[in-house]
Design goal:
It is a single chain. The chain has helices at 9-24, 27-37, 41-47, 51-62, 65-75, 79-90. With 99 residues, it is mainly α. The protein has one domain. α1 (9-24) packs across α4, α1 (9-24) crosses α6 (79-90) and α4 packs antiparallel against α6 (79-90).
């Protein structure tokens, strides 16, 4: 059974673009992101149009709790919403809920 998503595809993409902007506004975090992804600054704009890349941006945010909390606070989003957006962009399938 697929867990219902509370985030639409458009909303998920918007969250990911906000996350990319958030990362880009912090030179240290942008450098870390580019180093981890192997994407050069010149390729960043083109890559942002790829759904898989946007899911990776949210993976990056979700992978470091202080970054996630700072992003959630700045954008007034719940961390859960960020995770749901990532699931939508990555096409996550849920077989069952875990209590």
């Amino acid at each position: 059974m697929k867990k219902p998503s509370k985030v639409s595809s458009d909303a998920a993409e918007h969250v990911a673009i906000q996350a990319l902007s958030f990362i880009a506004n912090d030179p240290a975090e942008l450098g870390r992101f580019l180093a981890l992804t192997g994407i050069g600054p010149a390729e960043l704009r083109a890559a942002a149009h790829e759904p898989g890349f946007l899911a990776g941006v949210l993976d990056h945010i979700l992978g470091y709790e202080p970054l996630l909390l700072a992003f959630a606070k700045e954008t007034d989003l719940e961390p859960r919403t960020v995770a749901q957006a990532r699931e939508v962009l990555a096409g996550a399938q849920w077989e069952r809920d875990v209590p």
